[in-house]
């Protein structure tokens, strides 16, 4: 399950422009600020891999990173900018939905959810949409290091509440993993999980 090398391959602004080889891929999705760039960098142990997708003009693109020349991590645009114009949000959803519904090499969506806050409507909507459309997915809870000392509710309670709230939209409950890019929690588990889903 080791990551030896990661190469940025391309940014695509339409699903049909994505790489056309048959390598398996995992799509990372989540609210802006959920910790997606940190998680990608922590997975691949490089500081700057996910920076590409943060450059102006690249945030609305599908970014493919090739790992060990054999599988892809795909960085998708973050959702939920509170002040995004309604039209931009519409574009995001048709664009991203098209990707999920048509991408045959998609092994699993890794839906990132911030465990340091109570369940957010936009995350629940996203999880429910993916569940209803039978898109294979894994919940990746981020910022689980905020477990101790934080004010208010604990991440484990937030995680439990989230799973309760989406239950009825899933025939089988998706796998879920707790992570922290600060402490390294969940890195090995997530890499192992992805290698098991790829069958190697
Ligand atoms: P992105 O917008 O989803 O790419 O989020 P970033 O990776 O840029 O992270 C957003 C903010 O959350 C930054 O201030 C990070 O330092 C912080 N952050 C990201 N991951 C973690 C984590 O695992 N634990 C804690 N405590 N903070 C995190």
What can you tell me about this protein's structure?
Keywords: GTP-binding, Magnesium, Metal-binding, Nucleotide-binding. Its cofactor is Mg(2+). With 200 residues, this protein is an alpha/beta fold. The protein has one domain (6-198): 3-Layer(aba) Sandwich (Rossmann fold), CATH 3.40.50. The protein has helices at residues 36-44, 86-102, 121-132, 155-166, 187-198; strands at 6-12, 25-30, 62-67, 71-75, 106-114, 137-142, 176-178. The chain has a seven-stranded mixed sheet, sandwiched between helices. The termini are close together. It binds guanosine-5'-diphosphate (GDP). Guanosine-5'-diphosphate is lined by residues 30, 32-38, 78, 142-143, 145-146, 180-182.
Concise overview:
With 200 residues, this protein is α/β, with parallel strands linked by helices. The protein has five helices and seven strands.
In whole angstroms, the N-to-C terminal distance is 8 Å
How would you state the average pLDDT, rounded?
85
**pLDDT < 50 runs, ≥5 residues:** none
Number of domains: 1
Order of helices and strands: EEHEEHEHEHEH
What's the number of extended β-strand segments? 7
CATH topology: Rossmann fold
Helix/strand class:
alpha/beta
CATH superfamily: P-loop containing nucleotide triphosphate hydrolases
Cofactor: Mg(2+)
Family: Belongs to the TRAFAC class TrmE-Era-EngA-EngB-Septin-like GTPase superfamily. EngB GTPase family.
Domain EngB-type G: 22-200
Keywords: GTP-binding, Magnesium, Metal-binding, Nucleotide-binding
């Amino acid at each position: 399950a080791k990551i030896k090398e990661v190469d940025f391959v391309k940014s695509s602004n339409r699903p049909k422009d994505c790489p056309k080889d048959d390598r398996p891929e995992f799509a990372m999705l989540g609210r802006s600020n959920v910790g997606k760039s940190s998680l990608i960098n922590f997975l691949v142990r490089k500081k700057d891999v996910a920076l590409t997708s943060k450059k102006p003009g690249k945030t609305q693109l599908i970014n493919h990173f090739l790992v060990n020349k054999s599988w892809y991590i795909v960085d998708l645009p973050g959702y939920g900018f509170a002040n995004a114009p309604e039209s931009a949000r519409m574009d995001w959803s048709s664009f991203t939905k098209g990707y999920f519904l048509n991408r045959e090499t998609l092994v699993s969506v890794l839906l990132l959810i911030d465990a340091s806050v109570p369940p957010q409507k936009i995350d629940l909507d996203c999880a429910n949409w993916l569940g209803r459309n039978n898109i294979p997915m894994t919940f990746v809870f981020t910022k689980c290091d905020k477990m101790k000392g934080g004010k208010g509710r604990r991440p484990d309670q937030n995680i439990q509440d989230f799973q309760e709230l989406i239950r009825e939209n899933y025939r089988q409950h998706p796998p879920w993993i707790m992570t922290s890019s600060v402490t390294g929690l969940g890195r090995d588990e997530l890499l192992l999980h992805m290698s098991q889903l790829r069958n190697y």
